[in-house]
Amino acid sequence: MKKASVPCPFCGVGCKLDASSKKPLKEACARAYGVINYFSRNPVPEVLLYEDGLYNPIKLEEAIEIIVEWISKNRTYYIGSAEDTNESAFLLNLLARALGTNDVDHCGRVCHAPSIDAYWDIFGLPTTNFSLDDELNDSEVFIIGSDVAVTYPVFWSKIKREARKIIVIDSWTSFTMVQADEGIIIPPGPGYLALSELLYNYTYRREVPLWVQEWLDADTIEKTIHFWEDARAPVLVHGMGVTHSGYGYSILIRLLQAFLKRGGKIATLRGKVNVQGAGDMGLVPHLRRYFKTIEGIIKSEIPSRAGSDLVTAFKVDYPVYLIQCQNVIASLPNSEEVALKLLRSKVIQLTPKFTESSIFADLIIPTTPLVNSQGTVTSGDGRVTAFEIGENVAFRIYREVLEYFDVHFHDLREVTYTAFEIVPYYRNIDVYKLYNGYDQYIEKPRTWKEVTPPRVEIFHIHRDEGYWFYTTRDPALWTTKGADEILERNSMKKAFYVNPEEFSGCSKIKVCSPYTGVCVSGDVLHTKRVPRNVIVAFFNHVGLKVNSLIPFEPRDVRSGTPIYKSAKVKAFCVS
């Protein structure tokens, strides 16, 4: 009998924790050891309804009736969670469509949506030809725009153990680059597009267009080609330096083909514990054709027109927002505009913890932390895990709300069977074995096809004068909801990080976005790890209001992902 376990909720690796003690069963990073402390900080103790200037406790049954009333009478935007299960995601998908809308999305929109779109076009599936069990022996791992030592420490440990050589390409000397064999600094945004164009054309023996030299200097081009020629078995690990560039899809169509043409692997993990599963289960504003079958379940037709994506949802007014486990104030671009939208709307928040977004909530419902819940999740490499620890409150809410609209499920396992039968690349999963402790992989791609890369068009913003604004992750803070108390003591100073040759003598600078109209003042720290003409800030330093400097537009043309790592700003010394 296998020991009961639950996935660590903090990233796409999906390390296993003991179901009772919540301690790691095998190799894990520091985050896993802080699970209990993390979820015990700022918990939502009971259901709260905001009335007459006060939050008053109410029963869950009353809250469900309020949800039904609000979403029945008002246009609602549904924001699902990558921190919950496939079953909760599938039911929220059904709920939105039962109400006649495609206005539903999840946090994958603002991180790796370009990756998923590129995988579909290249592999015919939303996943890659890599599993964490695969060995990287004698491989050259190219880590492009990813601080994997911070975001996926266990995966980084594997890379360090097994890779022949590690080459990191980023827009600053990241925590990963410091530990790598080789490092190359390139400009944000168009720099990554130029890099992908270089590798794609060089691999396919085509002439490299002259525009590449506008963004990559001769030394960078020479070093890149040298490492590429030297690689025997190249492996790509790409991150949000790519997907937050504004050109993520275009870059990946080029990079994927360059690596695959060389017989390489695409070893990228993505986001939170169930960001793969959340998208697979239909938390997107444009459903694939196989979801047509849910019309028989919801007893109505799915609208043919795609809904608004997660960013567009805050460019227009919705009377109601239903938000599960996403701190939208801290994670979306143009955060001051997001706040204004929430102030004008009814906000339903399903969350185990209070967050900055709770300030705007009219109805707050405590949900079950994943480590105490039940259901299935799909990790970043496509591995599906089942667990049954305690009641999944979000699942219960969605199931009971759906009953008001004549959609009925007997229990959680029925939802698992139904969802996995509808999504074709989950049909190979034996659900009975899954719930008996045997993890399984969704269908993995066996072949790939060549795709003509999109035409190159550089955004006007990237030719404007100003500093590149590059957001990254504080190693001690796991999410925009913080960490545990011990690691938070070691967090980076909340400041703007700049090159020593710039802002000399300044202790504080004001950083302004001409595109959002917002200015933020903060301490300045000088470090040689940041190149000239770049300002680095940590996006999980929520108090610095970093995201207020990121505009809604432009975004990735194909995937709608914002330019968190390639915005342009003005900056001035204030003291």
Automatic annotation (TrEMBL):
InterPro entries: Mopterin_OxRdtase, Prok_molybdopt-oxidoreductase. One of its GO terms (molecular function) is oxidoreductase activity. Gene3D superfamilies: 3.40.50.740, Dimethylsulfoxide Reductase, domain 2. Keywords: Iron, Iron-sulfur, Metal-binding. Residues 55-387 form the Molybdopterin oxidoreductase domain. The keyword Iron-sulfur applies. The keyword Transmembrane does not apply. One of its GO terms (cellular component) is membrane. Pfam families: Molybdopterin (PF00384). PANTHER family: NADH-QUINONE OXIDOREDUCTASE SUBUNIT G (PTHR43105:SF10), RESPIRATORY NITRATE REDUCTASE (PTHR43105). This is Molybdopterin oxidoreductase domain-containing protein. It comes from Ignicoccus islandicus DSM 13165.
